[in-house]
Amino acid sequence: DAGHYDNGGYEHYLLKEISEQPDTVARTLRGRIDDRFHIAHLGGLNMDARETRSFRRVKIIGCGSAYYSGQMGAQLIEELARIPADAEPASEFRYRSPVVEPDTLYVAISQSGETYDTLAAVQELKRKGGRVLGIVNTVGSAIARETDGGIYLHAGPEVSVASTKAFTSTAVAFALLALHLGRVRDLSPADGRRICEGLRRLPEQIKEILTLEDRIKELAKKYADSPGMMFVGRVRGYPVAREGAQKLKEISYVHAEAYPASELKHGPLALISPELPTVAIVPDDELLDKNLTTLGEIRARHGRILMVGHRTSEAADDCIVVPKNEVELDPILLTIPLQLFAYHAAVALERDVDRPRNLAKSVTVE
Ligand code: AGP
User: Does the interface predicted TM-score (ipTM) exceed 0.90?
Assistant: First the structure.
């Protein structure tokens, strides 16, 4: 209930929650990074080293934005811990009679801890003997109680219906979990150190991104009257694109579609025209050249492009340049300008930013 919390002088809770992220990310990290051994301390997992080493797969479940943060988490776990990992909507998982395996680590994500589809999936997993961790914001919530252990986000209450700070904190919690799983398997001390140092840089870098707000506001106004927008990203950029599209449609009601950049030519390229601008997530990673080629393909079809990445490019009409971290952690930072973009698009279109139509903050019914 928004009435209980101070909006801190911000016009909307959403902007307050976006702006809090340097602090909320720092809180998710607090006390959990060990700079001596370059490991993560996650006491709440209730797992000894032997059990931690025993998992051969990780399956992540959550709904909506929680699911997209889980997709980011699956990539972090595969990259850092080299354990096959994937994410699935909890709402689908619970209905499809999943095979529950003893050597799979299940991770349920929920800001509220009360989402019924996620809770029902956790209960089904437990019934079948699955080992389930929770990545949850609300202490003592149903999903926190039902899981065998987990990581609390400590991001503080999230009031606005659209999730922002819980999303970034969940991704940070996954980076810690991936570091933890990796360092008891074969992640080197040097890579552990690189990730620890990268994690420590995040709050300051988020602050830097927040200083881009005026520019992002201008861009949001420029693009907000489009009938729809395409969001594309490759591999690490894809969950960023999905969450960016989700934010835009939830609060501005502008139709937004997210696609892997690599899939454009297999169908949705037919949609590209000056009326359907593209937000392209283009990190400076090993896929940079491929992504720039995709921008060229969009441009050749007269599509307008807003590029979000670590450099500017002539292939794009507009660019938002964010600070660079380690490649594995960059998706967390790339998400933040898209939150501001959706927020300012919604404001420009005079939407009910904190309480978008047809949505509830937590969906506690089937
Ligand atoms: C996020 O912006 C959405 N409002 C929604 O997708 C949300 O993330 C989802 O319903 C899951 O909520 P939870 O994290 O509280 O379980």
Answer: yes
